[in-house]
C-alpha cells in the first residue's frame, strides 16, 4: 500500500484570553491507502484538533505553528482557505460527533447530499446528482431511498441520521474519511451497526479512514493501527494487535485497564488518577509523569524520546531507554 497522508512534527497553538494553549506538540503519523488509523486519547489530548488541522477547520484562534501535512506529497498546511475548500468533501471528508447538529434541519436529506455534489461534481447533471444521492442513501443501509430523499433530519432516528451524515461524507468518493467520535451520541446497539457499516463501506469504496475515539473497544473492532495521544503528543503507536498485547506506555496500559470487562462483576472500576497537564504551561518532562505509577526523576526533568519497540511500534517512555535501570538507581 502506498503512503496517502503524512503528518510531520505538527504543532498547533490555540490563543485564549488567558494565554497560548499548546494543543498539539510535534506529532507525526501516517496513513496508507485503504488503511484505518485510530487516534485515541482523553478529552483535551489534542486528537480532534489534530484532524481539524488536516481538514483546515481550526477555530479562528487556532494556528499551525510548525510541521507539515502532506496529502500525496502536497503540504495542506500551506494551503489557503479557498484551496482547502476544493479538498474538503472531495479528497478528505469528515463525520462529526452529533448527527443532529451536522445536518441542516431545514433541508431534506436528498438535497443535503446533492449540495455536496453541486460543489465538487459540477460536470454532473441534476438527474445524475439525484441518482447518486439515492445510490448513497441505499449504500449506507437506509431502506426506501426514494421516500427518505424527501424527508428531513428530524423525521429520522439517531442511527439513521448518522448514516445520512456518512452518505454526505462519501458523496464524492473521498480518499480519506475522518470520523470524529462517530458513535458517541448513539446507543450501544446502533454503535455496533455504524462501525460494521464503516468497515463494509471501506471495502466497497476503497477509502482510508482516520477514526478519533476515547473508546478502545471501538479501536479493536475497526482499526489496523492505533496512535495514542496524551498532553498534545503521541505517546504510543502500533499495529492494533500489538498495541493490545504488547503495550509499552504506562498511559496506554492505564486506558486498557480501565475498560469494563463482562467477567468483572461488582467492585470498583480501574481508573487513571489525576488530571491531564495544563497545555498553557506543559511540563518540561514527560506529560504523563504526574499521573504515572512508575515515575522516575528523569521523567519529570526531560521529555522522553520516541523509542522504537518493534517493526512499527513506537512509544515515548523513559522506561524503554536502556539507561532506565541506571536512572532508577
From TrEMBL:
Span of domain ABC transporter: 5-256
CDD domains: ABC_NikE_OppD_transporters (cd03257)
Membrane topology, from the record: Peripheral membrane protein
Matching SUPFAM superfamilies: P-loop containing nucleoside triphosphate hydrolases (SSF52540)
Organism domain of life: Bacteria
Record localization: Cell membrane
Gene Ontology cellular-component terms listed: plasma membrane
UniProt-listed InterPro entries: AAA+_ATPase, ABC_Ni/Peptide_Import, ABC_transporter-like_ATP-bd, ABC_transporter-like_CS, Oligopep_ABC_C, P-loop_NTPase
GO molecular function, one term: ATP binding
Biological processes, Gene Ontology terms: peptide transport
Pfam families: ABC_tran, oligo_HPY
Keyword tags: ATP-binding, Cell membrane, Membrane, Nucleotide-binding, Transport
Family: Belongs to the ABC transporter superfamily.
NCBIfam families: oligo_HPY
Protein known as: Peptide ABC transporter ATP-binding protein
Species classification: Bacteria, Bacillati, Bacillota, Clostridia, Lachnospirales
